[in-house]
């Protein structure tokens, strides 16, 4: 896994990430709760962000690097 550091980080937090992701999904789809974000004028607006992005930010996983690693894995498999 040292060849794919983002996947290694992801595998270490998978259980936690899954549980938090399921909770956030439930929160967004089964309740009237929405995420909000304050602007410069102290007005609160709905904040639309993918759960995957929130989780990646929280667990310090770079989604662009993760995707690049996936592409590298696929290329390696194709060459075999």
Structure description:
The structure is a single chain. The protein has 80 residues and is mainly alpha-helical. The protein has one domain (5-74). It contains four helices and two strands. It has helices at residues 5-12, 14-30, 51-58, 63-79; strands spanning 36-38, 44-46. The protein has a two-stranded antiparallel ribbon with strand order 1-2. It is elongated.
User: Can you count the beta strands?
Assistant: 2
Content-based structural category: mainly alpha
The major pleated sheet works out as: 2 strands, antiparallel
- Spatial arrangement of strands, main beta sheet: 1-2
| Spatial extent as radius of gyration | 17 Å
What is the residue-averaged pLDDT? 93
What is shown here, in short?
The protein is mainly alpha-helical and 80 residues long. It has helices spanning 5-12, 14-30, 51-58, 63-79; strands spanning 36-38, 44-46.
Helices, strands, pairings?
Elements: H1 5-12, H2 14-30, E1 36-38, E2 44-46, H3 51-58, H4 63-79
Antiparallel strand pairs: 1-2
Keywords:
two-stranded antiparallel sheet, mainly alpha, single chain, 80 residues
């Amino acid at each position: 896994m040292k060849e794919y550091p983002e996947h290694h980080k992801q595998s270490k937090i998978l259980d936690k990430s899954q549980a938090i992701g399921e909770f956030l999904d439930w929160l967004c789809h089964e309740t009237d709760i929405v995420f909000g974000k304050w602007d410069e004028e102290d007005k609160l607006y709905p904040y639309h962000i993918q759960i995957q992005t929130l989780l990646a930010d929280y667990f310090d996983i770079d989604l662009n690097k993760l995707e690049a690693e996936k592409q590298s894995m696929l290329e390696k498999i194709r060459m075999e």
